[in-house]
Amino acid sequence: MSRLDIRELVIDVPGRGDGSALNLRVEPGQVWGVLGPNGAGKTTLLHTLAGLRPARRGDVWLNDRPLATMRRRHIARALGLVFQDRQDGFPATVRETALIGRHPYLSPWQMEGGDDLRQAEAALERLDVAHLADRLVSTLSGGERQRLAIATVLTQAPALWLADEPTNHLDLHHQTAVMELLAEQAAAGRAVMMCLHDLNLAARWCDHLLLLYPDGKARWGPREKMLVPSSLERLYGQRLATAEIDGAPVFVPVR
Ligand SMILES: Nc1ncnc2c1ncn2[C@@H]1O[C@H](COP(=O)(O)OP(=O)(O)OP(=O)(O)O)[C@@H](O)[C@H]1O
Known about the structure:
InterPro entries: AAA+_ATPase (IPR003593), ABC_transporter-like_ATP-bd (IPR003439), ABC_transporter-like_CS (IPR017871), P-loop_NTPase (IPR027417). With 255 residues, this protein is of the alpha/beta class. The protein has a single domain (4-253), classed as Rossmann fold (3-Layer(aba) Sandwich), CATH 3.40.50.300. The chain has nine helices and twelve strands. Adenosine-5'-triphosphate binds at residues 13-14, 36, 38-44.
């Protein structure tokens, strides 16, 4: 189990004022959604939480240790990041790519073993890309690449998932399958924080929300308190119509 403590954190968005310092805790079992318009800083936040870029101010603690003092290998055993954009520069197969998820557990130059391979193949199966295992990643469609990226993090088996628009490029069925997977991870005691553009996915699958405004201001809390139509309209500068389907609110943009 992993816990992320975000203390007085100001992310470093170039040319922008500090806005609100973030003070929140992502606990095992929770699913956090990060919402905000383009450029609000969602990716910057996730990369800061993963220790990939420095904060302007404040700290991130992973399991009672400051992230900044931890070795990358130890961070990678606890925390997995699904990137929004990927550069698949090396000519690797789908199976080889999923196996990268095991690298935090191997010593330098150690080959993956049978258990690693089984874990990667189970993840490929789960993300519905096992039939592509021998294909070069460069030949995959956008949605197939996205599912492979998630399968690679599933192979890594982190206790804390950070996912940057995990449903990017996915058709409706695979969007639901990925959200079910992330919900299952949380139900098994892991923690999830994901950036989303789809308010309806956030309303259905997240239990906590962080709203990031373009000026750096932020609000966060339990879903019920955050999904207020007037504040979502302010967040996006977009009028919304609201309904309820299947017990969850549904938001539709209107002119
Ligand atoms: N290296 C950089 N140099 C200058 N500006 C940057 C840099 N990296 C990010 N930014 C700017 O910081 C802001 C936040 O970017 P970020 O990618 O975090 O936004 P986002 O909320 O994830 O957006 P989107 O919804 O479009 O993915 C943007 O205005 C972006 O142009």
